[in-house]
Amino acid sequence: MSAVDAVVFDVGRVLVQWDMRHLFARLIDDPERLDWFMANVMTDEWHFQHDAGRDLDEMVAERKAQFPGHDDLIDAYATRFLETIPGNVPGSHEIVRELAQRQVPLFAITNFASPFWREFRANEPLFDLFGDIVVSGDEKLVKPDPRIFDLAVRRFGHEPGAMLFVDDNVANVEAARALGWHVHHFTDAGALRTDLTNRQLLG
């Protein structure tokens, strides 16, 4: 394998667990109603608009108009988003810390809405180990758009062929690969550790 100088992480489902249903299962007792709500109101496609930089208040007001009678639940998306993050992905934080100890430059590219990111980041010291983090909501660009990877190259100061991009989403991985990045399709920390060891980034 050619040399990798830096590792670039996705955040959700690579470093932290993320599941919108985790929040709303606390608020909706009936399983069938929960299934309907997640499939029709609190969809990934709707949430993705906020990741891409759309205004939260505008999104919430529009959704309430589209689905009357669910105001409290839709408000919970805006006020309780951190409850969609139940914990860390097992083993991933340890890998980040070991890479940092070995002085491997660390970066991240995350599809994350700006206000939610600021709230989350304020209480997560792991990201103090990262040299820079490209946040989609700040940039109004989302993975797998090639432009967010080009922006990351300019910001991080490493060529694509010198960086390993780690993401759980196949479309994001393939977009980075097409731009010349080294890639790792994340499934679990054990497989990532093996890949990093093979690349001599971990002992």
UniProtKB/TrEMBL annotation:
CDD domains: HAD_sEH-N_like. It comes from the Bacteria. InterPro entries: HAD-like_sf (IPR036412), HAD-SF_hydro_IA (IPR006439), HAD_sf (IPR023214). This is HAD family phosphatase. It comes from Novosphingobium mangrovi (ex Huang et al. 2023). The lineage of its organism: Bacteria, Pseudomonadati, Pseudomonadota, Alphaproteobacteria, Sphingomonadales.
